[in-house]
């Protein structure tokens, strides 16, 4: 399309958002033989926004999530409830052997998975190869003890795409079917390269979102996280780390504990991931009891929902009833009963 010659430079190239018709729209433009045209017509169904229709058309050209929810449930052999996990803490400071020990204790306690945190990649005190090996040992030992399939999401973020793929290859050869990538740190190009490899080799991909607040925190600037999440879905990824609601496959994490499980189960449903970090590991009796408490609470909520109870109004009572069968849950409920993660906005524009 030819540029609008009548538009003044001071108007057409001024900073900020410019009216479309001032710079691009030419009503009397006539096509030329050398033009390349891309035209299609979309007729939305009643009640469907044009923006959503356009997004659906754009998504047809994307690879999308490499596998999907059903494939993941098949690989993990988990059905009928959200996946339950834990981010290993502290983020920095553990040696690889101690890191693997924490992974084992959490998985032995009944969690479906554990995961690296965003800042855990490869440090002098814990090289990624050492962490991978001890984590894999923890997975296989916990599977043998519990009779369930267990996972650990290992962070493959690296300085280059070549190094990232090398890490993914090493992990796949160890025999565990999921890997993690910090997609905002790596960038969308790198994050598209990794899903291509995952699709070719059968790996699942969990996507973290470090630095997201720089992009989506301010209301008058940046990109809404829903847009970032949709862009990731088009780039490729089986999980999107979305954060918790109490504030692809959404991953609720951050400042959630056993008393929030009814709300999270009600809001997200079964096709979600509930990830408890410090709220698992800060159990007074240890890591495994913390995992047991979370699993008992989740199973009680799922059972109550399936029996017809309203988790929004009866959730706390369901948790209290479950404490009769689990001392670990009794202690966890006592620890977290008065704690709420509700803070005033730091940005005056958010108030």
TrEMBL record:
<dbReference type="GO" id="GO:0016984">
    <property type="term" value="F:ribulose-bisphosphate carboxylase activity"/>
</dbReference>
<dbReference type="Pfam" id="PF00016">
    <property type="entry name" value="RuBisCO_large"/>
</dbReference>
<dbReference type="GO" id="GO:0019253">
    <property type="term" value="P:reductive pentose-phosphate cycle"/>
</dbReference>
<keyword id="KW-0601">Photorespiration</keyword>
<protein>
    <recommendedName>
        <fullName>Ribulose bisphosphate carboxylase large chain</fullName>
        <ecNumber>4.1.1.39</ecNumber>
    </recommendedName>
</protein>
<dbReference type="InterPro" id="IPR033966">
    <property type="entry name" value="RuBisCO"/>
</dbReference>
<dbReference type="GO" id="GO:0009853">
    <property type="term" value="P:photorespiration"/>
</dbReference>
<keyword id="KW-0456">Lyase</keyword>
<dbReference type="GO" id="GO:0000287">
    <property type="term" value="F:magnesium ion binding"/>
</dbReference>
<dbReference type="GO" id="GO:0004497">
    <property type="term" value="F:monooxygenase activity"/>
</dbReference>
<keyword id="KW-0560">Oxidoreductase</keyword>
<dbReference type="GO" id="GO:0009507">
    <property type="term" value="C:chloroplast"/>
</dbReference>
<dbReference type="InterPro" id="IPR036376">
    <property type="entry name" value="RuBisCO_lsu_C_sf"/>
</dbReference>
<comment type="similarity">
    <text>Belongs to the RuBisCO large chain family. Type I subfamily.</text>
</comment>
<dbReference type="InterPro" id="IPR036422">
    <property type="entry name" value="RuBisCO_lsu_N_sf"/>
</dbReference>
<keyword id="KW-0120">Carbon dioxide fixation</keyword>
<keyword id="KW-0113">Calvin cycle</keyword>
<dbReference type="InterPro" id="IPR000685">
    <property type="entry name" value="RuBisCO_lsu_C"/>
</dbReference>
<feature type="domain" description="Ribulose bisphosphate carboxylase large subunit C-terminal">
    <location>
        <begin position="68"/>
        <end position="247"/>
    </location>
</feature>
<keyword id="KW-0503">Monooxygenase</keyword>
<keyword id="KW-0934">Plastid</keyword>
């Amino acid at each position: 399309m030819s540029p609008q010659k009548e538009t003044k430079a001071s108007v057409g190239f001024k900073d900020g958002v410019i009216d479309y018709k001032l710079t691009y729209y030419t009503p009397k433009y006539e096509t030329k033989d050398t033009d390349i045209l891309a035209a299609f017509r979309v007729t939305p169904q009643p009640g469907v926004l044009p923006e959503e229709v356009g997004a659906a058309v754009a998504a047809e050209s994307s690879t999308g999530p490499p596998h999907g929810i059903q494939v993941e449930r098949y690989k993990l052999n988990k059905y009928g409830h959200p996946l339950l996990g834990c981010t290993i803490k502290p983020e920095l400071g553990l040696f690889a052997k101690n890191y693997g020990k924490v992974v084992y204790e959490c998985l032995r306690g009944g969690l479906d998975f554990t995961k690296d945190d965003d800042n855990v990649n490869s440090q002098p005190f814990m090289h990624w190869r050492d962490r991978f090996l001890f984590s894999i040992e923890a997975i296989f030992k916990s599977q043998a003890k519990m009779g369930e399939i267990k996972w650990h999401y290992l962070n493959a973020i690296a300085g280059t795409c070549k190094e990232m793929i090398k890490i993914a290859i090493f992990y796949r050869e160890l025999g565990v079917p999921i890997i993690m990538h910090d997609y905002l740190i790596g960038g969308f190009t790198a994050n598209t390269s990794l899903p291509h490899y995952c699709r070719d080799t059968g790996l699942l991909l969990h996507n973290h979102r470090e630095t997201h607040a720089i992009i989506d925190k301010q209301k008058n600037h940046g990109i809404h996280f829903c847009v970032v999440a949709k862009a990731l879905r088009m780039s490729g990824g089986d999980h999107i780390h979305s954060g918790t609601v109490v504030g692809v496959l959404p991953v609720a994490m951050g400042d959630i504990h056993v008393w929030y499980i009814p709300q999270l189960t009600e809001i997200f449903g079964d096709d979600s991931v509930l990830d408890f970090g410090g709220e698992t590991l800060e159990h007074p009796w240890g890591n495994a009891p913390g995992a047991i408490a979370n699993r008992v609470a989740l199973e009680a909520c799922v059972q109550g929902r399936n029996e017809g109870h309203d988790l929004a109004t009866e959730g706390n009572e369901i948790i209290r009833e479950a404490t009769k069968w689990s001392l670990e849950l009794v202690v966890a409920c006592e620890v977290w009963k008065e704690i709420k993660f509700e803070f005033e906005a730091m940005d005056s524009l958010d108030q």
